[in-house]
Amino acid sequence: MKTFTWVFLMVLLNLSTPALAQKVEINDVRPNPLERWDPIAPFNRHVYRFNAGFDHWVLMPVVRGYRFIVPTPVRKAARNVFSNFDEVTVFTNCVLQLNFHKSINTLGRFIINSTVGIAGIWDPASRIGIHGYDEDFGQTLGHYGVGAGPYLVIPILGPSSLRAGTGLVADRLMLWGVETAILGDLTIVLSAVFPVEVIVERDGTAFRYGELGPFEYELVRYLYLEYRSALLRE
Amino acid sequence: MMQTVISKIKTLTLFLWAALFFLPRFLGAESHPALDNYSYPIKNPYLATVVGTPVEDQAQLPEKIRLKVFNVQRFPDRTVPPIFWGGQSLHYTVARQKGPAPLVFIIAGTGGNHFDSKVIFLMRALYQAGFHTVGISSPTHPSFITTASASEMPGLPNQDAQDLTAVMQLIRRDLEKKIEITSFGLMGYSLGATQAAFVAEIDSRQKDFDFQHIYLINPAVNLYTSAGILDELYLSALPQGDQSINNLVSSSLRDAVHYVHASGRSPLGSDFLYRAIEQMHPSDVDLEGAIATVFRLSSSNLSFTADLMTGSGKIVEPGTQFKTGTNMDPYFNSSLQWSFLRYFDELLLPFWKARLDLSRKELVSRAGLAHIQKFLKQSSNIQVVTNADDLILGPGDIDFLEKTFGDRATIYPWGGHCGNLEFKENIKKMQDAFLASKAGEAS
């Protein structure tokens, strides 16, 4: 699954190269402060549209089934478990950023929530004031001065940037490495969980495609990139 | 001497007591006894408009109701550019009761669609009270303009109401195959309320639906006045236009991210927005900026869509072909410069001038409830609720509502623009109004 994502991303990046040569729009009006650099826009726009279709015809029907079958508290627990799993990624990146405070904090959270919170179903760490951070390899790259790179809409997963997308792959490979080290051949079982994670994540996201009008792509791009830069500054 | 003073004070006190006791009755305040201790918690109209009602003060409604999204096609042969998703189909949301029940249509506010959180909240509230409910997108929403507006140039309430009536007839025809509808009701908020009043007026002549009850929440009394107020808000709160939007968005996101980190990752419930904003202590200018931004996005979408669909050529060169991969950035940029009044003056006015030979003055007068005041005055089944501090109302608008609707008007002392729509007391009043009409019909 992870290898597939990796290969997929490489293909995607190769695909996108010709689009870079796309003719530059001659604009006689002053630049729009809400516009963002998007050299592979035609590609991104198609993927965005594909994602909307995928969301409507595949993902949301599955999510609706999931909501129908699984009661709310269980779904919340599922979200928490995956979020707890994420702490491994957060921890690694805090270490990579040499942020001692955040690393210890995240490690403490992970240990407490995995044990007392039973695999992360509950979040006792927050109750005693140990709050979570949101770090990933994309932010680590940003921390060391790597630029965000072009905006990138990843199939199925949605808005990203070259840096965030690369970070995503790196984080996944890292998790995969950790899993292999601990579970050996059983890793394949955990990989099968990835689609479940996508469904659980989608269930927890209120966004609906196609509601923001003709400039939805531009608005999502703007808000996503602003959000990422706010995360990086934090 | 002393005696006289004391007796004077006594008389005065008595008089005061008497005044306090009797005056409200003469002033008609007794018809709104609930307002004496109105407890909606947010008294800042801008904050109320942005955050709405805190979860603990919202009406208790069923968490899960079965919502279905269906669609109708009013103009199946119309060419709709692929940048508007959904093609010729206008989507709407339905919550159906198992047995026979009255059906209430709910019209979304400016730029809102049928799945807007306010629409869904009102649908849940009426579903709880035993009604079928249908949520309809605002005639100013791009999907409505492209699929259901005959003129493709919304903004003239009477025309919009004709479009809404046609859409409601199509929806009714489809739904009657699936459910038993005993009678009809109508509700709208913000611009949707203004439009609902015009729909009611049309129906009083056509008698298609014979609405039992019509409930208007925070209507714009005159679209032109409200448009002017919102444009003014944009200019004062966002003096550098879209550059100011950018500054506001990036500083709010920074605060929001900080808040999320400070509060831990898991407790993000439905009251997240409220809690976050409460923590962020936004200034009034920021709140005004946020409101102005949301409305500016609506006027941009509206202007672009109407211009493109009618081939008016103000934003889009007529004949331009749009595909999925088309670079929309230049259009996004120019559309952002379109305020409501600019839409009114440069698109709406020339369009209707050419077709109905309307002067600017006539257009403005047709854009308000005053145009159908006589009808509103004599229709005992139309009720209006608004707030004394609703920011889209101009001077004299509250007076107009009170004069026109009499005791069918409820003016809450505060709540901003639709901020108290989800408040338990407001919802109860609305449910009771529809239930009373249902009971009246049964007897």
Q: What keyword list fits this structure?
A:
heterodimer, A: 234 residues, 65% helix, globular, disordered N terminus, B: Rossmann fold, 2 domains, eight-stranded mixed beta sheet, 16 helices
How would you summarize the topology of this molecule?
The complex is a heterodimer of chains A (234) and B (443).
Chain A: H1 2-16, H2 41-69, H3 72-96, H4 100-115, H5 124-127, H6 137-143, E1 151-154, E2 158-161, H7 162-183, H8 187-191, H9 194-203, H10 216-233
Chain B: H1 2-26, H2 45-51, E1 67-72, E2 90-95, E3 101-107, H3 117-128, E4 132-136, H4 142-148, H5 157-175, E5 181-189, H6 191-206, E6 213-217, H7 223-237, H8 242-263, H9 272-280, H10 284-310, H11 329-335, H12 340-356, H13 360-366, H14 373-378, E7 382-387, H15 397-405, E8 409-412, H16 424-442
Parallel strand pairs in B: 3-4, 3-5, 5-6, 6-7, 7-8
Antiparallel strand pairs in B: 1-2, 2-4
Helix pairs in contact in B: 2-10, 5-6, 7-10, 8-9, 8-10, 10-11
